[in-house]
Amino acid sequence: MGRNRIYFGCLIAAMFAMIAYASYGMLNRDQPEKLYPISVIVDNSSSDRWFAFREGLKQAARDYHVQLNIVSTGELSTLADEKALIEREKENGAKGIIIQMCDSEDEQAYAQMQEAAGIVDILLVETDMEPEGVFSAVIPDNREMGRMIAVSLREDEKNLEGKKIGILSGNRERLSQKQRLDGFLEAMEGSGAQILWEIGNHEIMQTALTKEQLQHVEILVALENDETERAVDYLLEPDTPLCPLYGVGSSEKNVYYLDKKLIEVLIVPNEFHMGYESVAVMAAQLQEHITPQHNELVSFLVVRPETMYEEDNQKLLFPLVQ
Amino acid sequence: MRRIRDNFSNKKSEYAGRCRSYSIQMSISISFTIISVFSVCFLSIMLYQQFVNKTKDITIERTEQVLNQTAINLEDYLRNMRRISDAMYYSVIKDKDLGYESMGVEMNLLYEANKDNLISIACYTNEGRLVAAAPVANEKENAQVTKREWFQEAVGQMENFHFSTPHVQNLFDDPSYRYYWVISLSRAVELTDGGKSALGVLLVDMNYSSIEQLLSKANKANTSEYLYLMDSAGEIIYHPKQKLIYADLYQENNLEAACYDDGSHEEVFDGEGRLITIKTISYTGWKIVSVTPITSFQMGLKDMRFFMIMLMALLLLTLFVINQLVSGQIAKPLQKLNDSVKEWETGNLNLDIYVGGPIEVEHLGRALRAAVAQIRQMMQDILVEQEEKRKSELDALQSQINPHFLYNTLDSIVWMIEGERYQDAVFMVTQLASLFRISLSSGKTVIRVEEELKHAENYMNIQMVRYKDVFHVSFEIAPEILSCCTIKLVVQPLLENAIYYGVEHMDGEGEIVVKGYRQDGDLYIEVRDNGLGMPEEEVSQLLIDNHRVRKRGSGVGLINVHNRIRLCFGEAYGLEIHSVPDEGTRVRIHLPFVFYSEETRAKLEAGKQQI
């Protein structure tokens, strides 16, 4: 009799559990799907160089139920600016922040980022920071990009002996720029070319690049989108001697001047992929509540004017719908 | 086959064994529960499947409607583009002689009228020279249009319109850095230049964004279903995740889908079951493909799933309660009957067997009750029979004594009368009369110890007359035992044995002592002689072997006395014999110390040893 009562009790309990589960499911059916707020902080966010990146962010936000906030920024030049932005976004409810570090070489950068972020997840785009691997990062292989500029240059110029090269290296406080420069210089070793000058964007702001400087170089290398645009602008100025330009970039202007053959070779990182993957990784971290730090490399293209309309290249170079 | 049968048989016996360990209510309840769960689950799944199928049909119908509507819109758009091309060709190009007039104004007007859907209109000669273009723009250096696919197709198949796949327009220079994705509609045209006819190509570059907008409207719904557009070779023209596909972050089964005919097809792609519906756009050969993941049919049924679970739970709950009540109703009478049987098993023969419940159980109860009554009666009969048997046995034993004794006594009287010892004969007859009076005792079996000892004394008086001074006898009786119970004629056979086997030939030195006393709450009467005695082996046979050949005496053995005492008072009582050769024998009667009364006597004679 006792066993019968236990058996009957178990059945009744199981049925009530099922009813409770079904009731809970029916009552919670209208609850909106949870969205994860993620903020994106990149240098000069409205610039058209981020067009593909923004497309990638938006596509991933739709796919991964993310409430995306691309923070309107001007030129971010100091760590303090970025730290303030992170704190503001955190106060606004962001659970994750995707950031392009403006100063990733500073020894204090990691500690300051960590302090500003608190429990909010941080993910780096375009550039990693020292020490590498402390935050998840979705970046192109910057060293390889620099190397590929040198490879292209050496393919074009069979004899580089004594050739004078000027390098616009961009923000040298950024690890990515340092890696691109290192990659370029490593690949140029033994070519016989002479690096006439190598100048960062801060120095350019302080002392404008002089025509004299430009007149002496035979090859111009720009390691960042804005620097490539800047180099184009210099080359378009009257009386400036034309010289081959090898650059990195993805803006419409750079693509246009590649088409106009002012740029010999353009290294174009797949920024759509970078934007999409950064949100995907961040969403996974927020949804699964785990933070496996890992770096994800995105691809890049080496494009020349004669190859830019090839089917695969035009898919990456040109925004699909404007 | 045999193995399966054996296996089934094993399972069956295993199940039966398991059922035996449960109560009948539990077995019924478990069986009903299993049947209920299976039935309800089966019913729920069937019902749910019906809903899924219905939803699937509705979804397919809706998808086809959207697909058809999109196809109509797209065909309208493409028809419009062909009309522009026709208008340009038949109304402008055919009427113009390029040697004398330009077609720029009309081309611009046509462009302006349709510029929402167009990027450009251009006309080229067979050599690839630009004749006119709208809007007016600088043609790129080294445009090399003759090497373009749209140009070659137009020249290759002159009678047709040719639609390209989306590509970036690379014909005109736009200083605002803008590049446009276009779909080129090209056709061969006949140009007139200075009165001479020449081949040319008319190019209408449609704005890809118009097609994108048109198709993205169909993909507005926030579901996992989507539409995409591809050409007849499977090259994607529009896809809601086109950028992801270009970046290799998403895969589409377009190349395989290009081989499908129009209509619905089921496929498995990337581990996911999908329903593909295809509609071919007329003239272009483009295909609109609708993709519906099979899982999406069930996603909309989430509420229905919860409802079905609740319905199933409530139904099962009701069935469980009914099961419990029904099984209880069936099992309760059987349980009561079982309880009655259990009580019977404990030895209670006077219980009332339960009779009730369904007809079968009631019949069982009645049958059992009748059987119990019958068994009870049979046991009573056996008891009576046993008692009668015991009594008849006792009577038989006693009847063995009386003839012997009578024979011996009469033998003695005859012997006296022959020896003219009349006084002794009179004495003997008097003693005999007394002896018989006690022996008869009005048919009683149980008498006072006093009477038994009187009987023994009468007997010894008779024997003393016969044997004169051959032996001496004395009685040492504790007065407290005189009023106790004994069965009659137990001392006399002992005295007889003491004389015949002990002191008969001792010439005045023989001595027999009869001693009665109480010890450890029991009553003892012992007869001791100083006669020949016996070896131990013989003593041990005295109370066992009933068929020993007696040399002398009445023929009634000690075993007779021993059995009578045990029959009357129980196994704990009887005779104890102790004998040493040449020293004598002591036979002790062990009896319970029970005072004599009529009631006690009646009980003992009725065979009740516990008084």
Provide keyphrases for this structure:
heterodimer, A: 322 residues, alpha/beta, six-stranded parallel sheet, six-stranded mixed sheet, 12 strands, 46% helix, B: 611 residues, alpha+beta, five-stranded antiparallel sheet, 16 helices, 20 strands
What does this structure look like?
The complex is a heterodimer of chains A (322) and B (611). Chain A has 12 helices and 12 strands. Chain A has helices at residues 2-27, 51-63, 79-91, 109-117, 142-156, 175-188, 201-206, 211-216, 225-236, 252-259, 271-288, 311-317, and strands at residues 36-41, 66-70, 96-99, 121-125, 136-140, 164-170, 194-200, 219-222, 245-248, 263-269, 295-298, 300-303. A 6-stranded parallel beta sheet of chain A has the order 2-1-3-4-5-11, sandwiched between helices. The longest helix of chain A is centred in the N-terminal third of the chain and has 26 residues, at 2-27. The mean pLDDT of chain A is 86. Chain B is an alpha+beta fold and 611 residues long. Chain B has 16 helices and 20 strands. In chain B, strands 1, 2, 4, 5, 7 and 8 form a 6-stranded antiparallel beta sheet that branches. Chain B has a 5-stranded antiparallel beta sheet with strand order 10-9-13-12-11. In chain B, a hairpin with a 4-residue loop joins strand 1 (118-125) and strand 2. In chain B, helix 2 (24-92) runs antiparallel to helix 5 (208-218), helix 2 runs antiparallel to helix 9 and helix 11 (422-440) runs antiparallel to helix 12. The A-B interface holds A 1, 3-4, 7-8, 11-12, 15-16, 18-19, 21-23, 25-26, 29, 55-56, 59, 252-253, 255-256, 270, 272-273, 276-277, 309, 311, 314-318, 320-322 and B 22-23, 25-26, 29-30, 33, 167-168, 170, 177-181, 208-209, 212, 241-244, 246-247, 249, 302-303, 305-307, 309-310, 312-314, 316-317, 320, 324.
